[in-house]
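fyi for ur records
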Amino acid sequence: MESDVLTEKVSGQVRRGNWRGAVETLLDAMLCTADDYGDSALREHIERIATQVFDIP
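which gave:
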């Protein structure tokens, strides 16, 4: 996702009080970046944060 699109999407979610949606969007973008770089260790780390810290499957 392009940076400006991501910024607008997350900003909109935060303005509406949808903090969980904003976090999910950011984590998804981070997972996509890890995949783009082929970094499976980073992907696993992000997934662990998502499930353990934010309780997002």
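Helices lie at 3-15, 19-36, 40-52. thats all i got for now
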